[in-house]
Design goal:
This protein is mainly alpha-helical and 227 residues long. Strands 1-2 form a two-stranded antiparallel sheet.
């Protein structure tokens, strides 16, 4: 059964679940932190601005390595948005009260959320590919090599749809599994071991956000590269 299907309240015909309210809270917090970090930029940065600059510098360098300097800077905001949103959603799993049976749901442990991220990643990849190469050249690249176009075109098209599905299922499976294991450990060993798992989760959640955006950057790199 999918995590996050518990309905907390309704707005007209729309049912609002724990997953939705958690995402609203995350978006509100990220918006507030972004505003606080950038509202008064200074030559000598304060703690908030300094932390933001360090994070931006690290992420920009990371994506430039995968996409090249030009495309890395050009589309940095897209990849940084994916990374920050996913990692904050992941880290919400270590907060008290987060779990399958509570109203406070972890968004990335819900399949509908990760599928949504996968769909956005799919359109992001192809929109950037068409923008950089033109739609004729981009579509033609899906049929290469030309002497095998009858065989390669359907295989390449299938691969393009498998990619976002794999992104969604990998993120969901890892987060849902980690959350389930942690909850079971709380039931069996309420003291000690679950705390260790939460500490390991900090690294695990970072890794999952990095893997998602790394694979997305590779897909975009393939979409914009010239033959």
């Amino acid at each position: 059964m999918e995590h996050g299907t518990n309905v907390l309240f309704s707005i007209g015909p729309l049912e609002v679940t724990g997953t939705v309210t958690t995402m609203w809270a995350i978006i509100a917090v990220l918006t507030l932190l972004s505003w606080l970090a950038t509202r008064r930029l200074k030559d000598v940065p304060g703690p908030m601005q300094n932390a933001a600059e360090i994070a931006v510098g690290y992420l920009r360098k990371y994506y430039e390595q995968n996409l090249g300097k030009e495309h890395g800077r050009k589309y940095f905001s897209v990849f940084a948005t994916f990374f920050i949103f996913i990692i904050v959603c992941n880290y919400s799993s270590v907060l008290p009260g987060a779990g399958h049976i509570t109203g406070f749901a972890v968004p990335t442990a819900c399949l509908s959320v990760t599928v949504g991220l996968g769909v956005v990643a799919f359109f992001t990849t192809h929109t950037i590919g068409v923008r950089e190469r033109g739609w004729k050249r981009y579509l033609a690249s899906l049929a290469k090599p030309l002497y095998l176009c009858v065989l390669m075109l359907p295989l390449n098209l299938i691969e393009q749809f498998i990619r976002p599905a794999s992104l969604a299922l990998r993120l969901f499976g890892n987060l849902y599994g980690e959350e389930t294991v942690t909850e079971n450990l709380y039931a069996i060993f309420p003291i000690g071991l679950p705390l260790i798992m939460n500490v390991l989760s900090l690294l695990f959640c970072l890794l999952q956000a990095q893997v998602f955006t790394m694979l997305l950057s590779i897909y975009v790199s393939e979409a914009v590269e010239e033959e």
